[in-house]
Amino acid sequence: MTDNIIIRPWMLTYTIIFSLLSVSFVYNDFGQYAMAFTAFQGVVYFVIFTGNLLFSMSYISPFIRALWKFVFPLVVLDFIGTGIIDICYGKHAHHSTPALIVTACVIDFVLFFPTFRAHFLLGYGHDEV
């Protein structure tokens, strides 16, 4: 853990924008998916926001590091699982071409990449992240 908190402005900006997008993601899930799934996604996005904020503020303790060794794989699995669920059961699932699905998956990955990197570094990175 660092004694001085070093703020990463780019990550803090990304965290704020991503948290606003997350609210819209969860809001769009209401009525489309079961309430339990939507609530679970809300919890996942809260964990993602927390991890992004911890990383943007460079706050890493041994407890956070140990916890994120468990959280990071869950975030990745949730990303993959919800992508599959959305492709199969989403609002536009049966109207999409394979090219559109691949394009949407690439865009999603690019959107989530800073989150994946931040959460990986929280759990497995060096002490000087």
Topology:
Layout: H1 9-29, H2 35-56, H3 62-89, H4 98-124
Helix pairs in contact: 1-2, 2-3, 2-4, 3-4
3D architecture notes:
The chain is mainly α and 129 residues long. The protein contains four helices and no strands. The protein has helices spanning 9-29, 35-56, 62-89, 98-124. The model has no long low-confidence stretch (mean pLDDT 85).
The quaternary state of the protein chains shown equals single chain
Order of helices and strands: HHHH
Q: What percent of residues are in strands?
A: under 5%
- Structural class given helices, strands, pairing? mainly alpha
Task: Summarize the model shown.
The chain is built from 4 helices and no strands. The protein has 129 residues and is mostly helical.
Salient structural properties:
129 residues; mainly alpha; 76% helix
